[in-house]
Design a protein that fits this description.
256 residues, mainly alpha, 15 helices
Length: 256
């Protein structure tokens, strides 16, 4: 999976959708149109989860026609058009969702993820940083790690390090930041630091194919053939069909 697509999958955004406010904050009770818009926005997400894009689009458009001035309606439309590959409309609705978010940081995080995935990485990175700084955001380590991934995807690996350090300052055992730092330090030519962060990651997380492949490359860089072989056996024995195992086999083929 690429750096951008790892930032935040559409499925993760869908899972968080139902926590959105029902309507924009107002001292008056919601109108019938506002209630109907919320219901259709939620239906749009349900159909999107089921893969029924045509019905999801219809429900999202109904929500917009009933009340377009809510976070729920705009987010539903953004997710639908994102899935449909309509980048222009998706961007418009992610931006409108932020406008009507009343300071809710998830809307900014969603826009940031979209921008990073679609190539506007510096702007996406800045939005992640703003989300992380929002006192309402309960998991700043997530936004900071995503900002680091955005920077790396933009070819600025050195810029990613302070974001990841800040993520770990917020939550020292955050596995995504630990793994990202391990991967980053190998890229920056510091395999010893990479090994240290990979060990911290593995102390709290199960071994995956990407982690085993990273471990293999770290140990090769450090000259520890025995430990590299341990990771290689894990790849071949536990992750036989993974992309990382294919890369290992290609690497071994080209080695004298």
């Amino acid at each position: 999976m690429t750096q951008c697509t790892r930032i935040r999958t559409l499925a993760a955004v869908l899972a968080a959708f139902l926590s959105l406010p029902v309507v924009a904050q107002t001292p008056r009770p919601p109108t019938n149109e506002q209630v109907a818009a919320q219901a259709n926005a939620q239906l749009a997400i349900e159909y999107l989860r089921k893969g029924d894009l045509a019905t999801a689009k219809d429900k999202a458009e109904r929500a917009l026609s009933q009340d377009s001035r809510t976070l729920a309606s705009q987010t539903a439309a953004a997710l639908v058009y994102d899935r449909l590959g309509d980048t222009r409309r998706a961007r418009e609705h992610y931006e409108q969702a932020l406008r009507y978010s009343d300071g809710q940081p998830d809307a900014q995080n969603n826009l940031a993820a979209f921008l990073c995935r679609t190539g506007e990485r510096k702007r996406g990175e800045q939005n992640f940083l703003e989300a992380a700084a929002n006192p309402l955001y309960r998991t700043p380590e997530v936004a900071l790690t995503n900002a680091a991934r955005c920077a790396r995807a933009d070819g600025r690996a050195a810029d990613a390090e302070p974001y990841l350090r800040r993520a770990l300052a917020a939550r020292p055992d955050f596995p995504e930041a630990l793994y990202e730092l391990a991967d980053l330090y190998l890229e920056l030519g510091n395999p010893l630091q990479s090994r240290a962060f990979l060990q911290r990651y593995l102390a709290g997380s199960r071994l995956t194919a990407p982690a085993a492949w990273l471990g293999y490359r770290v140990e090769r860089a450090l000259g520890d053939a025995e430990q590299a072989a341990v990771y290689a056996r894990s790849l071949k024995g536990e992750f036989t069909t993974s992309e990382q195992t294919r890369e290992l086999l290609e690497a071994e083929k080209g080695r004298p």
